[in-house]
Design goal:
Blueprint: H1 11-23, H2 26-65, E1 71-76, H3 78-86, E2 90-103, E3 112-119, H4 121-128, E4 133-137, E5 145-149, H5 150-155, E6 166-172, E7 178-190, E8 198-201, H6 203-208, E9 216-222, H7 228-238, E10 248-250, H8 254-263, H9 266-290, H10 292-304, H11 309-347, H12 349-355, H13 366-392, H14 396-400, H15 423-436, H16 439-465, H17 468-473, E11 478-482, H18 486-490, H19 513-517, H20 530-537, E12 542-560, H21 561-564, H22 569-572, E13 579-581, E14 586-591, H23 593-605, H24 612-617, E15 620-625, H25 631-639, E16 644-649, H26 653-664, H27 668-673, E17 684-691, E18 711-715, H28 716-719, E19 727-735, H29 740-759, E20 775-779, H30 780-786, H31 788-822, H32 825-833, H33 838-878, H34 888-919
Parallel strand pairs: 3-8, 5-7, 14-18, 15-17
Antiparallel strand pairs: 1-9, 1-10, 2-3, 2-6, 2-9, 4-7, 5-8, 6-7, 11-19, 11-20, 12-13, 12-14, 12-16, 12-19, 15-18, 16-17
């Protein structure tokens, strides 16, 4: 039997041929080297920036929320704690005990310093510690140790704390019981937020305080991919609840929120990752794949003259290793320079401060760089091994005639009439024939270019659609509302919006009606007074047609036991009477016809058990709440529809002043004898309880609202049955853009004047010398300015990702066109030898590039458009402020770029091949 090849052992000849072979591939190798570098840079930058941004947002949210936990159960039990630890979708669980508030030791305990809390090691290390910065010391271990926030220390007058210094506090263990305690400061920390800071004590101190054996506050966090609603639903079904009133509070995890802000959700991140990696895969693979036929022919020649399979493998692998090493070094250096030096320089100092500093926000991650190097080099290695396998499986004759097709079919030319074509038409016809010789290559290459282009377009859509600018644009130019009373403002009530993200309703509060109206609880009081309203109407530049007034009144609720039971079961059992009076003052908001119609549609679409007809006719009132009912309470709420409810007005100002005088007097008999009548409304029917945090709830803006009090919606007809005047609770003003600065100045002056006047109205407030609560305003332009650095930084980061994806996509197209043309130099020489001119050659090559272009554009306007619509639907469901705009200019720019590349590459290849031929 004859051997397929006769080995030639002349090593010098083999070495010479190998070196010569490498020298003939300089152009292809340069393209491949650049592709490896760009691939590494693209992966490192895209994922480095994405991971860095998401992680920084996550830490920022944890610090703003004051804890890394995403859920809590108050009044929790050991049984619930054990069950939470068993659930696979709950990542971490901890428990804490809230002792009570601690005040300074003074005559009247005037200053509330902190909340006294014990937390177990899991709660502290997993949930609480991550929310604090500038931590000095450690968690208390000894009985008399305490860990305080810097804010709490400042309230005690301590600006330069020292470990071991004595801290004296009056610790409350309930409403009335309290004891003076001496602590030693074991550490301190910095926290965010306006709520009362926490002071942490040891478990030994908890035992010494002799607290009633009570329950824990259970803290937990669910898996990051699980939404708030799904987690809550699962927990209510799984956990043994103590009563119908026991609530499970769940929010999205910080990471879930950060990912949602960045890309809408994990699904989009996964799809984006796959799309980008596929694009990089084709970017590197296409160059080698397209030039493979020439490699097979040249290496097959070495094989024919006696080079062994091992020698050919060494030659090719050595060449690939050199490219991998050089490309990896280049890609790694460029990635490090851009992510460590360039982007931080562009972002600037203030963006880093906004995000929490350099220690939090970093984009260069060595592990991502390592993965990108391995991924890109792995693609090149696998592709090169494919070339080697082809060579070793072919005979010398097969490899010499190999052109990439599995079977060389003879093309039958029609013998009949031949259509006469123009020169351009003929060249495009030949170009189409050339394309069809490599159908698989054409289809796969077109798809790879399309993936790169689509990734860039989608990234631009996400960048523009997720911009905070759209969220701010939905805000009114000026939001005006009444402030909380002076004391409760100092406790953080009504101040929450100052430290919250701007996508949270600024008028959502933990405060209740008593805390809101403590300094001005009389019927005539209006947060926006009539006098102030009249002055506002005189300001030139306010568009009153586009502005919105939220009107209503503050009242006392009297409701049947069955009606109040879903909200407060304890109150429903307090008396034997059927009607129960609710203590904190509540809010009644008047709805217009359009708002009632939107509510009606929402109820019908979601098939909710709500009596909208009674609300519309003015015979009923609807309770709006912020997700405060448990599933069991919701069942009670459904049963409460139709229950009677009526309202009592607040005392008149005259009676409120007289009440204060009586309370301050020493005559107890006089206090008991004197009565203060309150006007009563007609009796309404309860239309139901409606959760405003449910999906697709109509956009009806409210005044101050939260869990602290009941909030009613009522129609204009219904409000006429309440014996009180309609007040302006909140104003949302729209200004002429050109006159906004002037309007802003005028409003600020009016509010300053109004607040000064109210501070002198001390007749009603129970705190001697304290005036009535004032008015505050939130200006959209201030928010825009405040968030400008943040928004600019986001645009830079997402823009950098878009640019690298665009470069990768354009490089892929350029590589495909250039490599494909360059690999066919011999074919071009033959065509020129039989009479094809340079002009005809250019037309033919331009035609081939144009077919790629047309295929990519066709995919873009079919599959691409479907992908854009899918992204639009997905993002609008995931992100309330996402604004979709068709990327018409971007698509036009891409099409123009591809055409320009096609023209330039065609001219370059024809010129280069001509120069190369002349040099030979």
């Amino acid at each position: 039997m004859f051997h397929k090849n006769i080995p030639n052992n002349n090593k010098n000849i083999i070495r010479f041929l190998a070196k010569n072979f490498a020298g003939t591939k300089k152009v292809r190798n340069t393209i491949l080297f650049c592709s490896v570098g760009i691939g590494i840079v693209a992966i490192t930058m895209v994922f480095g920036i994405s991971f860095g941004k998401i992680q920084a947002e996550e830490i920022k949210l944890i610090r703003e929320n004051g804890a890394a936990s995403s859920g809590r159960i108050e009044d929790g039990t050991e049984e619930q704690y054990a069950k939470l630890n068993q659930l696979d979708y709950i990542k971490r669980v901890g428990k804490s005990i809230f002792v009570g508030e601690a005040t300074d030791i003074s005559k009247n305990n005037e200053k509330t310093i902190c909340n006294v809390v014990w937390a177990d090691s899991e709660s502290w290390s997993n949930f609480l510690r991550p929310a604090y910065t500038n931590m000095i010391g450690s968690y208390p271990q000894k009985k008399d140790e305490i860990l305080l926030a810097e804010r709490a220390l400042k309230k005690l007058g301590i600006s330069e704390p020292e470990q071991g210094m004595e801290i004296n506090l009056d610790v409350y263990k309930g409403v009335f019981e309290h004891s003076k305690e001496k602590f030693k400061l074991c550490g301190w920390y910095t926290d965010s937020g306006n709520e009362l800071a926490a002071g942490y004590i040891s478990h030994d101190k908890i035992n010494e305080l002799n607290l009633e054996k009570g329950s824990y506050t259970l803290l937990f966090s669910q898996s990051n991919h699980l939404s708030r609603s799904k987690t809550e639903e699962k927990l209510y079904q799984t956990l043994p609840m103590k009563s119908a009133e026991q609530k499970i509070y769940v929010s999205e995890t910080a990471q879930y929120t950060a990912v949602s802000k960045f890309a809408g959700g994990y699904e989009m991140v996964i799809l984006g990752t796959l799309g980008i990696l596929c694009g990089i895969y084709f970017l590197v693979r296409n160059v080698l794949w397209i030039s493979m036929s020439e490699d097979v022919q040249n290496l097959g020649l070495l094989h024919t003259i006696g080079a062994t399979e091992r020698q050919i493998t060494k030659i090719y692998r050595k060449q690939m290793r050199s490219l991998m090493l050089k490309g990896s070094v280049l890609g790694s250096l460029i990635s490090a320079l851009i992510l460590i030096l360039l982007i931080p320089k562009i972002l600037g100092f203030y963006f880093y401060q906004e995000m929490g500093g350099n220690t939090i926000l970093s984009f260069f991650r060595p592990w991502i760089l390592l993965i990108s190097v391995l991924f890109v080099n792995g693609i090149l290695w696998i592709a090169s091994e494919g070339v080697i396998r082809k060579i070793t499986n072919m005979s010398g004759v097969e490899s010499a005639t190999y052109d990439g097709n599995k079977v060389n079919k003879k093309i039958k030319h029609p013998v009949g009439m031949v259509l006469k074509r123009s020169e351009i038409g003929e060249m495009f016809y030949i170009a189409w024939g050339n394309i069809m010789r490599q159908k698989a290559r054409f289809i796969i290459t077109s798809i790879s270019i399309f993936l790169g282009v689509l990734s860039f377009i989608l990234m631009n859509v996400l960048t523009n659609g997720c911009d905070y600018k759209h969220l701010l644009e939905k805000r009114p130019d000026f939001l005006m509302a009444g402030e909380f009373s002076e004391f409760w403002k100092s406790q953080g009530c009504g101040e929450e919006y100052k430290t919250r993200e701007i996508d949270v309703d600024p008028l959502l509060t933990q405060g209740d009606g008593v805390e809101l109206l403590y300094d001005n609880d009389y019927d005539e009081f209006s947060p926006i007074s009539q006098e102030l309203e009249k002055k506002l109407h005189k300001i030139d530049g306010i568009d009153w047609e586009k502005s919105n007034l939220i009107e209503g009144a503050y009242v006392t609720t009297v409701m049947s036991k069955k009606g109040i039971r879903p909200y407060d079961e304890w109150l429903s059992k307090l008396t034997s009477d059927n009607m129960v009076e609710e203590f904190p003052w509540d809010t009644v908001q008047v709805l217009n016809e359009n708002q009632i119609l939107s509510l009606k549609k929402y109820v019908q679409d979601n098939q909710l058990n709500i009596d909208v007809k009674s609300l519309e006719e003015g015979n009923g009132v609807l309770i709006i709440h912020d997700h405060m009912l448990t599933p069991e309470q919701q069942k009670l709420a459904d049963e409460a529809i139709g229950e009677p409810v009526y309202f009592k007005t607040l005392l008149s100002k005259e009676d409120a002043i007289r009440r204060k005088e009586l309370i301050n007097s020493e005559s107890e008999e006089k206090q008991q004898k004197d009565e203060f009548p309150q006007k009563e409304s007609e009796t309404f029917t309860l239309c139901g309880y409606l959760d405003r945090q449910s999906d697709n709830f109509p956009e009806i803006h409210q005044s101050w609202h939260g869990e602290g009090n009941l909030y009613y919606f009522i129609s204009e007809k219904g409000f006429e049955k309440i014996p009180t005047e309609k007040k302006i609770l909140t104003m949302e003003l729209t200004a002429d853009p050109e006159k906004e600065p002037y309007v802003k100045t005028q409003i600020s002056e009016l509010i300053s004047e109004e607040n000064k006047k109210r501070s002198e109205m001390t007749e009603v407030s129970m705190d001697e010398g304290t005036g009535e609560a004032g008015v505050f305003v939130i200006c959209k332009s201030d928010l825009m300015q405040q968030k400008e650095t943040y928004m600019r930084g986001n645009r830079i980061l997402l823009g950098a990702i878009s640019i690298i994806l665009f470069i990768a996509g354009l490089t892929n197209y350029c590589n495909v066109v250039f490599t494909g043309m360059y690999a066919r130099r011999k074919e071009f020489d033959v065509m020129k030898s039989i009479g094809m001119t340079d002009k005809q050659m250019k037309l033919m090559l331009f035609g081939e590039g144009s077919y790629y272009f047309m295929c990519v554009v066709g995919l873009l306007f079919t599959v691409g458009m479907a992908a854009l619509v899918g992204v639009k639907i997905y993002m609008e469901n995931k992100l309330s402020y996402f604004t979709f705009r068709w990327p018409i200019l971007i698509i036009a720019g891409i099409m123009l770029s591809l055409l320009v590349v096609n023209v330039l590459v065609t001219h370059f290849v024809v010129g280069f091949c001509g120069e190369e031929k002349d040099s030979h």
